Amino acid sequence: MIILKIKSDIFVDVYLFGLVILKCFGMDSTDSIYTKSTVIFSVLLLFFCLMNKWNKQKFICSMAMIAFAICSTIMSHRVTVLMTFISIIAIMQCNQKMETIKRVALIWMTVASFRMLLAYLGIIDRQQQMLYEVRNAGHIAYGFGFGNKNQFGIAIVIVLLSVIYIFYDKIKFLYLVIIAGIGLYLSYMYAQCTTAMLLVLFTLLIYEISKYAEKIFYVIGKLVIPGCVFFSFITAIFYNKVSIFNYINSLSTGRIGLANAFLKKYPISLLGADIQIGSAALDNGYVLLYCTTGIVISMFFIYVYQKTMAWMCERKMKKEVLITIVFAILGISEGGFLNPFMNYSILFIGLYLSQKLGQSS
Prior knowledge:
two-stranded antiparallel ribbon; 2 strands; mainly alpha
C-alpha cells in the first residue's frame, strides 16, 4: 500500500517538474509547447487525484477552488489561477509533500543555473536587447534564455532562494555570499536588473536575520504579505496625489503609474476581467492578481497565503518563511510571482490546507 501511494505521487512530479523545467527554459503561455504541456500534465494530475482517497473537507475545498478557477479562466482568458490551484491541490493530495517541494527547488537550482552557464559561454543565444528607458538608454541587456532581462534577473533570485532552501542548515555564509556575488555580477553586467540586485542583497540580509534575530524574523514574516498588498494598492491609488509615490514610480521604471492606470481602466469585478492591451507591462503581481481574478479569488488567495505564512511562523519553519518573505516582496515588481512554477512558496499553501483540513480517509 505504501509503495502504491509513493508511486501515485509520480503524477504530481510530472505536473510540477515538467512545467517548472519549461519555465526554467523561459517558456510561458505564448509558447505552444508550454500550453499543450499544461493541458497534458493537468489531465495526468486529475487522474492522480481521482486515484486517491478524499476526506469531505478536502474534497469540498478542492472542488470550490477548481470551480472558481475555471470561472476566472473563462472571464480573464488566463490559466495562471487554474494552474496555481491545481498545484496547491496536488500538494494537498500527494504523500511526500515536503520532498516534492524540495525537488522543485532542486530543479530550479540545477536547470536554471545550467541554462545561465550555457548562455554565459555563448553556447546558446544570450537574447541581447537594447534598452530605451531614460536612465538606461543605449545600454544593452541580456535575457540569457529566459525571455527578457527582467525574467533573467528573477531567475537569478530564484536560484539563490533554491540554494538556501535546500542547504539552509548546512551552507556556510561565506559560500552563500560567493553565490550571491555571482548573482549580483550577472544582474548588473548582463540582466541590467535593479530589482534582482536589490532582492539578492535583501535575501542575504533576511538570511542573517533568520539566524541571529529570530523574533524580528518572524515578525517580518507575519507582516510582509499584508504590508506588500497595502503598499501596492496605496501607492497605485494615490499615485498622482502623493509626491513621494511619484518619486518611487520613477525609481521603479513606471510600475506604480501602470498599476494606477489599470486600476482606473478595469472596474471592480467578482471574478476578473480579460486584460489584453499592455497586460505584460503590469508588473505589480498584487494589482495584476486583482485585475485578472477579481475580488473573490484575489481576497481568497491573499487570505490563505497569509494564513499559511502565520502557520509556518508558529511552527518555526525558518527556510519556508524566508523564501516566502522574498517572493512576497518580489510580487510588488513582478507579475510572475502568481505562477507556482516560479514562486513555489505558493505550494506551501498545500501544506497548510492539508494540515488544516485533515488527512484523507
